[in-house]
Automatic annotation (TrEMBL):
Domain CBS: 354-412
SUPFAM superfamilies: CBS-domain pair, MgtE N-terminal domain-like, PRC-barrel domain
A Pfam match: SH3_actinomycetes
Region (Disordered) location: 411-434
Ranges annotated as spanning the membrane: none
Protein known as: CBS domain-containing protein
Lineage: Bacteria, Bacillati, Actinomycetota, Actinomycetes, Micrococcales
Source organism, top-level taxon: Bacteria
Originating species: Cellulomonas chengniuliangii
Cited InterPro entries: CBS_dom, CBS_dom_sf, Mg_transptr_MgtE_intracell_dom, MgtE_N_sf, MgtE_transporter, PRC_barrel-like_sf, SH3_actinomycetes
Keywords recorded for this protein, A-Z: CBS domain
PANTHER family linked to this entry: MAGNESIUM TRANSPORTER MGTE
Length: 434
């Protein structure tokens, strides 16, 4: 059991592995839940722990037996219900880091960089000290970084201000290693104001990746909260099919305004996709698969599928066409599978490796037909062509899954989530938050 007086800095705790008493990994700490009051030290009540399945659950600190460098030991009982933040609760990493506070001695303001909590003699954990960087004098290029100080929690005010403007640099630094889908989960769990602050601090490419993983309501709220020019830039950074889906959720006037602000070439692809019915191959496809001419050497084709921004499903094959190579292309010839390219000499032209047996679908092909073809032939993507057999795009298995799953699938808990090991005891009532 952690002894009284144990001090833990929350920013350093984020990412720490949580184990059960037998040494099996339960998950990783993502945040600390605290009750911030107008008077008195905030009380830390639990940890937000990410368990397998990307689910974030609540682990009461009463079920934590030890917090040591690099590990947190729990009793082994974990409530597997998804964590839902209550109005009275504050996420320390998500909502307190980067917050501006005022020193009660009148010496100015500062920004919270870390928070220390300590276990009391009665077993409770209290936030006792704040690590603050003082606001430095000057502005612009002449502005210097202020000194850092560790002060008692009652030496500052502003911890309980729900509407205070807040940066997001420190929080994002803690989460920079997260995949877009995991960061989307973090944003979804934040309050509306904080979610917008964090989203606004992301660069366009990162925000585009995260938006593609968020539920529709969150997507609309974030995009609508951005300055119009920046919203258009973020849409340009998204995959055309995802951008079209998002614009389809907006009022017509707002969508039209954003399309006008986008680069003409980017807007053209999105407008084409908006013309198709949602549950058709055209409505699901992307206009940016890997498209190459038949004379392309294998080595060059492999370089194209290595692109970091390419989804794994689309990296599984190259679509071979006659010029032009931008959709709608020249006549579609066929596909070359990644495995085939790996078996042939680098100088070989991909036109000699084409699989012409892949069945292309029309833009109006219904979802069920596309699903059956992908399942029947164990494919990750299908070509979509027009009446002249020009390639319009490709529909991938992840696009199909997005349309087959319920709209709220990102928010719905699974009935059965695998535990890290059979020995880990899991209870849906353990540590219930009464």
């Amino acid at each position: 059991m952690s002894s009284a007086g144990t001090r833990v800095f929350v920013a350093r705790l984020a990412g720490t592995t949580v184990f059960d008493p037998l040494g099996d990994q339960v998950g990783r700490v993502r945040d600390v839940v605290a009750l911030v009051r107008l008077k008195g030290a905030p009380r830390a009540v639990g940890l937000v722990v990410e368990v397998p399945g990307r689910r974030r659950v609540f682990l009461p600190l009463t079920r934590v037996t030890a917090i040591d460098p690099g590990q947190v030991i729990s009793t082994g009982l974990v409530n597997m219900r998804r964590f839902e933040q209550r109005p009275s609760e504050t996420l320390v990493v998500g909502e307190l880091l980067d917050r501006t506070v005022t020193f009660v001695d009148g010496s100015g303001t500062g920004t919270i960089e870390d928070v220390a909590m300590e276990r009391q003699r009665d077993g409770d954990w209290r936030v006792t000290q704040i690590f603050v960087r003082r606001s430095a004098p000057g502005s612009g290029l002449l502005r210097r970084r202020g000194e850092t100080v560790l002060v008692p929690v009652d030496a500052v005010t502003g911890l309980s201000a729900a509407d205070v403007a807040q940066g997001a640099a420190l929080m994002l630094a803690r989460y920079e290693d997260l995949k877009p889908a995991d960061l989307a989960d973090v944003l979804h769990d934040l309050g509306t104001t904080r979610r917008m602050e964090v989203a606004s601090a992301l660069d366009n490419e990162r925000l585009a990746d995260v938006l593609e993983e968020l539920p529709g309501d969150d997507q609309v709220a974030i995009l609508s909260g951005l300055e119009r020019t920046r919203a258009a830039d973020v849409l340009e950074a998204m995959q055309p099919d995802d951008a079209a889906d998002l614009l389809g959720e907006l009022p017509d006037a707002q969508a039209a305004e954003l399309l006008e602000l986008m680069e003409p070439e980017e807007a053209r692809d999105v407008r084409r996709l908006l013309a198709y019915e949602e549950n058709t191959a055209g409505g699901m496809m992307t206009t940016e698969p890997v498209i190459l001419g038949p004379e392309t050497p294998v080595a060059a084709a492999l370089a194209h599928v290595r692109r970091q921004d390419l989804a794994p499903a689309l990296a599984s094959m190259v679509f071979v066409v006659r010029p032009p190579l931008e959709t709608p292309t020249g006549r579609f010839i066929g596909v070359v599978h990644l495995q085939r390219m790996l078996r042939d000499p680098p100088h070989e032209a991909i036109g000699a490796l084409v699989d012409t047996d892949i069945e292309a679908v029309s833009a109006d092909a219904p979802l069920l037909h596309v699903t059956r073809l992908l399942a029947t032939y164990n494919l990750l993507a299908l070509p979509v062509v027009d009446a002249e057999r020009r390639l319009l795009g490709a529909v991938s298995v992840d696009d199909v899954l997005d349309h087959l799953l319920p709209e709220d699938w990102r928010e719905t808990d699974d009935e059965h989530v695998p535990t890290p090991a059979a020995r880990t005891r899991v209870s849906r009532n353990a540590g219930r938050r009464g």
